[in-house]
Amino acid sequence: MGKTWNNKAWFMVLPAFIVVALSAIIPMMTVVNYSVQDTFGNNEFFWAGTDWFKEVLASERFWGALGRNFAFSVIILLIEIPLGVFIALNMPRKGWTVSLCLVVMAMPLLIPWNVVGTIFLLILRTDIGLVGYAIDSLGIPFRYVGNPRDAWITVVAMDVWHWTSLVALLAYAGLVSIPDAYYQAARIDGASRFSVFRYIQLPKMKRVLLIAFLLRFMDSFMIYTEPFVATGGGPGTSTTFLSVDLVKIAVGQFDLGPAAAMSIIYFLIILLLSWIFYTVMTRNDENA
Amino acid sequence: MARINLDHIRHAYGIRPSAPHDYALREVHHEWADGGAYALLGPSGCGKTTLLNIISGLVRPSEGHILFDGKDVTHLSTEERNIAQVFQFPVVYDTMTVYDNLAFPLRNRKVPEDLVATRVKHILEMLELTDRADKKARGLTADQKQKISLGRGLVRSDVNAILFDEPLTVIDPHLKWVLRSQLKQLHRQSNYTMVYVTHDQTEALTFADKVVVMYDGQIVQIGTPAELFEKPKHTFVGYFIGSPGMNVFPVDVEGRKVRIGDATLDVGFAPKIGAGQKAELGIRPEFMDIGRKGMPLSIRKVEDIGRQKIVRAELAGQAVSIVVKEGADIPADPHVTFRDEGINIYADSWRVGREA
To answer: Which domain holds residue B308?
Structure first.
C-alpha cells in the first residue's frame, strides 16, 4: 500500500523554473560571482573574498548615497501620502466628473520615468519653459544644475507629480467603499467634519494607505531614472542615489567587484525592509 | 419625545416628477402620537425607508412639511432635529472602545463628562455590554455591534424620536427575539416615540402599538395588529399580513347579494361599488369552515403545521387556503362556508365597509 511516486509533475514546473532562472537566479549568481572576485581584464579573475564588501561598507560614498535614498523616501512619503489623501477626500463621488477626475489622475501614472524627467527639464527652462520662465521673471534664482537644494526640489517635485495620484486613487478606492450608513450615522451623532475623517474615513482607509505607503516606499527607494535624466546625480553627489551610484561604478568606471558587492548589499536592504513591512502589515490584519 | 406630523408629504428622487409613478412616496398625511411605537411595514421598494429618512432629515421631501410637536422641521438638518437612527447594518467606530462609541454622540454635543459617564453606564447595563466597555469595538460580533449602534441612539436622553431601519437584519434568529423584547421593554420604560421599519410582519406586529402598512409609495393602513388582521383596508394588507394571506375572489355585487362563481351570499349590507370598479370579496383562511354545507370545494393538498392544518383547495375556479384545527374532520365531499364577521368587500382593492 505504498504511495506511487510520480515525479513527472516536476516537468510541469520546468518552464517556469527556466524563466525564473534566466531572469533572476542566473544574473544574481553572476553578481555574487563578481562580488567575490577581482579582474584586470582579459577575462582573468582572482579570488577577492569579502574585500569588496568591506570596501563598500567602509566607504563614505556608499553611506552618503544610502542616506540620500532614505531622505528622499521619507520626504516624498511625507508629501505624497497626506496630499494624496487630501485629493481623494476632495474628489467627486458621483456624476460625470468622477470619470474625468479618474482619467486625469491616471495620466501621470502612464508616463515613463525618463519622459517625466525630460518634461521637467523642458518646463524648467528659462527660455521656453513656463515654470522656469515664471520663476526667472519673479527674480528667484532657481538653478537645479548648480544648487543642491534646487536639484532636490526638482527631483522631489518630479516624484510628487508622477506618483501622488497613485496614492490618491488608492485612498479614493478606500473612501468609496465606505457605506453611506456610516456618514448618516455620523451626522445623527453630531460628528464634526474632522471627527468623520478621524473616526470613519481614516480607519477605513488604513489598509489601502498601508499598501500605498509600501508601494511608494519601495519604488522611491529604487529611484534612478529621474535624477539620471534631470541632474545626472549632481551637482556634486547631492542627488546621487544608490542606484545612480551603482550604475556609475559598474558601467562608468567598470569596477565590477565593488558594484556587485554594492548590489548585493542594496538587495539585502530592500529584502529586509520588505520583510519588516510584510510583518507589520500581516500583524495588522490579524488584529483587525 | 415628540408628536410627529407628516403634512402632505410627497417625495420623488427624479428631478421633474409628473405622473404618480415618478414618486417614491405619494402623498403621506398623518399624525403620529408622542411616545407611540410605530412599525412601517411593507415589501422592498414601497417607500418605507424613504419615509424614515424624511423623518430623520437625511432626505428632504419634494413636497409637504414635517412637524415635531407642531414645529416645522422640514428644513432643519438631522442634528438640529435631534433624532436617533439605527441602520440596517451596524455602524460602529472601529478604532474606539465600546465606551467611547456610546459616549461619542454626547461628547459631540459638549455634554459634561460626568453626565456622559452616568448615561453611558446606564446604557451599557441595559444592553448587557458592561464587561466589554473598554474593549475595542471592532472585535465584536455583529449583534454586539448592532447593540452599540442602538445604544448610540438611546444614550441621548433628549431625542425627539428613535428611528430603526430594519435593525435586526444581521442578527441571529434566536437573538432577534431577545433584542426585540428588549426594545419593547425599553419603549415602555422610556416613552420615546419609536418608528421601526421592517418587511417582516412578525417583527412589526410584536414591536408596534400601531402598524403602518405601506404599499407602492403610499400608506394603505395604519392600525393595531388586530385591526390589520380583521379589517384590512386594502387587499394588499390582506395578502401581506397573516400566513397564509387573505383569499380574494372577484365577485358581482347586487344590493346585499354577492355572487362568487355559481354561489350567492347575503353579506348583510349593501356594499357601494362605483360604476366600472372592480368588486372583490376578501376572507381570511381562519374565517372559513369546511363541512357538508355551502359551496363545493376541491381539495388539492393538506399541509400539517402542528396545531393547525392548512388546506390548499380550489373554489369557484380559484386557489384558496383554509386553516382548520388539527383534529378537524374533512369530509370526502367537502363544502365551505364563510363566517359573516370575516367577510370584507373591496372596490378597486379598497375596502367598502358596512358603515359606508
So the answer is: 247-352
